[in-house]
């Protein structure tokens, strides 16, 4: 089992702290949220979140280092609005929604074992 480089986690945590402080009232309704979950091997977790029109929306994801996690965000019409699908399990996306509405966040585990992760929205 490979373990995450502490510097990577520290950098992600710093980015999220700065992001949340700068955008306390922007983004998701009713505000910032952090969730710890586990996505099973070769599976997808989905979240429904309302984001505000014209305010920067941010989603960050940090896994346990065991597998590749990908992050996708879709608008209420099913259009992909943001993604981070590199070969790591740390993901970050941001965009400015053109309307206030429901967005679907999908966390996809590309690996053959479960991955414990933290997902944050602003």
SSE layout:
Layout: H1 6-22, E1 28-29, E2 33-39, E3 44-51, E4 57-63, E5 69-74, E6 80-84, E7 90-95, E8 101-109, E9 115-121
Antiparallel strand pairs: 1-3, 2-9, 3-8, 4-7, 4-9, 5-6, 5-8
Structure description:
The structure is a single chain. With 122 residues, the protein is mostly beta strands. It has one domain: Jelly Rolls (Sandwich). It has one helix and nine strands, in the order αβββββββββ. The strands form two sheets. A five-stranded antiparallel β-sheet has the order 1-3-8-5-6, with no helix packed on it. A four-stranded antiparallel β-sheet has the order 2-9-4-7, covered by helices on one side. The radius of gyration is 14 Å and the shape is globular.
The tally of beta strands, per DSSP, is: 9
User: Helical content, roughly?
Assistant: 10-25%
Low-confidence stretches: none
First and last CA, distance: 31 Å
- Largest sheet composition: 5 strands, antiparallel
Number of domains: 1
Order of helices and strands: HEEEEEEEEE
Query: What is the CATH domain class?
Result: Mainly Beta
Query: Beta-sheet strand percentage?
Result: over 45%
Number of helices: 1
How would you classify the helix and strand content by structural class? Answer: mainly beta
For the largest sheet, list the strands in their spatial order: 1-3-8-5-6
What is the 3D form? globular
């Amino acid at each position: 089992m490979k373990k995450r480089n502490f510097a990577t986690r520290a950098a992600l945590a710093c980015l999220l702290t700065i992001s949340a402080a700068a955008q306390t009232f922007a983004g998701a309704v009713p505000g910032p949220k952090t969730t710890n979950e586990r996505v099973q091997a070769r599976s997808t977790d989905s979240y429904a979140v309302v984001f505000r029109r014209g305010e920067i929306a941010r989603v960050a994801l940090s896994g346990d280092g065991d597998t590749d996690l990908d992050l996708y965000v879709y608008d209420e019409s099913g259009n992909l609005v943001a993604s981070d699908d590199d070969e790591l399990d740390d993901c970050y996306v941001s965009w400015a929604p053109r309307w206030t509405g429901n967005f679907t966040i999908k966390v996809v585990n590309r690996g053959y074992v479960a991955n414990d992760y933290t997902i944050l929205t602003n």
